[in-house]
Amino acid sequence: MGVLDLYRLDGRVGIVTGAGWGLGADFAVALAEAGADVVLAARRADRLATTAAAVEAAGRRALVVLADVADPDQCGVLAAVLGEVDEGFRYVQVRLGPARMTHVMRWLGAAVRAHETALDYVTSRSVFVGRSAAMGLRSI
Asked: What does pTM read for this prediction?
């Protein structure tokens, strides 16, 4: 068994938003080459058709979903693929949204938590309390 065999996605389904071109299309093909069937979501049908052909050329199935995931009204289009609320992505095991808000929001949440933790650490440690108070820092 080689190292790349550890990363096989045989029998899994991935979803890639922004799959019409660029990194999204590249990620979709990479998932297919790793053995996953791929759900492709983007705004332009012509570009999705090209990506779907590349996924199928890799021997995997492609499901094309026309949707702009930056528009909340269109996000419902993916609900049937992802499963109902609180089902935890029952149907899709691998998610990639190379240019979408889902990743931005997740990382923003992590950044806020990291900032709060650091600020709490600095303002609660006795060695820092005097200096942080002088700079106007306080716990959130």
From this structure: 0.61
